[in-house]
Amino acid sequence: MDLILLVLAGIFVNNYVLSQFLGICPFLGVSKKVETATGMGVAVIFVITLACAATYLVYNFILVPLDITYLYNIAFILVIAALVQFVEMFLKKSSPSLYQALGVFLPLITTNCAVLGVAVVNMQNEYNFIWSVLNGIGSAAGFALAIILFAGIRERIEFNDTPKAFDGFPMALVTAGIMSIAFLGFSGLIKL
Amino acid sequence: MGNPITIIKNGILNENPTFKQVIGMCPTLAVTSSAINGIGMGLSTAAVLICSNLFISILRKVIPDTVRIPCFIVVIATFVTIIQFLLQAYLPDLNASLGLYIPLIVVNCLILARAESFASKNSPIDSIFDGIGMGLGFTIALGVIGLVREFIGAGTLFGATVLPEAFPRTLLFVMAPGAFFTLGCLMALLNYFSNKKKA
Question: What is the ipTM of this complex?
């Protein structure tokens, strides 16, 4: 039961984009079309889940025994960068169609701070392996949900007559603000 | 290039990381619930940026082109770890309020972007000035957003109460949505003035 709550909390209550501000760059950058937003969302779910598992193993089986936990930041970012590269090569060989679909988004994920953010949160809260991975899935699904909804709204705004000064980023930010208010409605729903 | 003042001015005004280039958004939105936090974050980022720019510029002829991005990231992560320890030791309060966002300076696209587009192509001295300019531009932007949010949301400036008690606080502005609104409106305001200038 706790595990289900953890995933739901990641998606709605502690939504990483709209309440913790992680992964804002891709959220604003690749949300002009629903299709690309979906691609990005799926790629992020994939990478965060793997990254949570990998960083958990690296932290507990390499950094802790060697007593060099203060290097976690460097270790995590390298693991994530290597993982993204590896996933890219693996997909290219094994599933060209999926690679085609995710293609351009994969390299971008290295600098998506949600990936590193979730890994650091897992470490700070001392989650065990299963909790870490599930927390990753929940948070990533929250990211995907937010970016797909946001892209849907932005597609419609394109055709509207907004004040000239608000064109582009300002309008996107205000839209994100309103979405964020909507997600505030979920706060307090689940307490972990 | 070469003139320090031009490079610094470029970072603060012409290519302001927050308002013109729209990069490094996560910390910009996350830690600006008060002016002090915003400026603290800005200065920490600036310190990392200046150091990483300097070192990447010194090493630019040694780092092979194909693995440059991982090399940059390691350099940046090293300085972030150093800054994190310094904050823990000397400014524990600030460290506590910035929390998770200190280790996340590593993935601030601003730093990697400057490493890639400036430090890897220019001399160490120029790179330091670029770091100072960009860092100041970032700090000013974060400070301004923090000031606005703190004023509207809590009625204080730098922690000192300025609005009378009876005046209602718009709590929303110190919460997540307020960050989006403040940045959006500030950007629109800047657009408005620059459009007017052009017309």
Answer: 0.79
